[in-house]
Amino acid sequence: MTPDRYVVPLPWDSDFLGFEVARLVPQRLGSSELAMCLTQLWKDGTRLVYWGSDPGDVESQTAATANQGLLVDKKTVFVRELHGFVPCAPERYATHSLPEDGWSDVLARLALQIGQYSRFHLDNHFSPETWQRLYCTWMQNSINRAIADDVLVIRDSGLIVALVTVRAKERTGEIGLLGVHESHRGAGLGRALVDAAMRWFLDRRLSSVRVVTQDANRPACKLYEACGFVVDSVENYYHFWNPLNDPV
Ligand SMILES: CC(C)(COP(=O)(O)OP(=O)(O)OC[C@H]1O[C@@H](n2cnc3c(N)ncnc32)[C@H](O)[C@@H]1OP(=O)(O)O)[C@@H](O)C(=O)NCCC(=O)NCCS
Q1: pTM above 0.90, yes or no
Q2: I want to staple 75 with a disulfide (CB 3.0 to 4.6 A). Which of 81, 196, 201, 235 is the partner?
Q3: What is the mean pLDDT of residues 120-138?
């Protein structure tokens, strides 16, 4: 078995970070298979490898630790059917679609709050500048609709205080970025964002909704559970850094 079959190069990540990044495909690997893949990748000049592994497979978890993997995320996918949707927030929060040229510093600050639990923030091989630039780029590419179909916002006295990005992928609706400004949390705005996203998906006759978050982000997990979502899958996400390179 050649390691090539196990590896996907990641051009977008490589371009953004300025060095080669790849992802391991199988969710389960033994220690020697993993070591073989990494050795080949390091030799080819790859600097960072992501691995979304099966948390229930003891051999894979042992392999990751034995190969100096950093457990940076328990990537959690929540899903729910749209059938039987009942709004779960008070009606008082109105959401509006943000224009494509609506970029502002307020959104940059919200992007950083959304990125707090991200593996790029938690892995201290990345400088704060790098993960902040990543989340601002993600937000900008959502506002300009490159990676989102719509951006729904809630305003208070004209200022954006909450935002959710949505996308339709075949019959599934995807929630991308979702965040409530720190000053406005605990008042039902998170629920209102989820409701607004659900209505957006229902208007497009989609059948289910998917959202990815981090298990460590308890407020987000609790919010999705409170809105009727269930956990679809969890992956233990590791970063492996090429030991032959300097820190980023
Ligand atoms: C997650 C987040 C959007 C919640 O927004 P919010 O406006 O405070 O949420 P709501 O007031 O609508 O709360 C709805 C439910 O979420 C859960 N919840 C929200 N904050 C919580 C917290 N800090 N701890 C535990 N549960 C929480 C509760 O179940 C709550 O229901 P309840 O009020 O009946 O107890 C907000 O904390 C946030 O913006 N976090 C930073 C960005 C982020 O992490 N986004 C998720 C990316 S996937």
Answers
A1: yes
A2: 235
A3: 96
Cβ–ligand 1 distance for 49 under 6 Å, the answer no
Query: What's the average model confidence in pLDDT over 105-124?
Result: 96
**Cα atoms in the Cβ-side hemisphere of radius 13 Å centred on 202:** 14
The single-letter code of the amino acid at 182 is E
d(CA 213, CA 80) in angstroms, rounded, equals: 14
User: How many angstroms does the Cα of residue 228 sit away from the middle of ligand 1?
Assistant: 14
Tokens 């707090």 sit on residue:
116
Q: At how many degrees (to 10) do helices 218-226 and 189-203 cross? A: 50
Q: What residue segments make up the domains of the chain, in order of their start? A: 3-67, 79-232
CATH classification code of 79-232: 3.40.630.30
- Residues contacting residue 186 through CB under 8 Å, at least 6 positions apart: none
Q: Among candidates 143, 211, 140, which has minimal Cα distance to 173?
A: 211
CA nearest ligand 1 atom 9, residue: 190
**Angle, alpha carbons 210-167-140 (nearest 5°):** 115
Taking 90 as the threshold, does the pLDDT of residue 5 lie above it? no
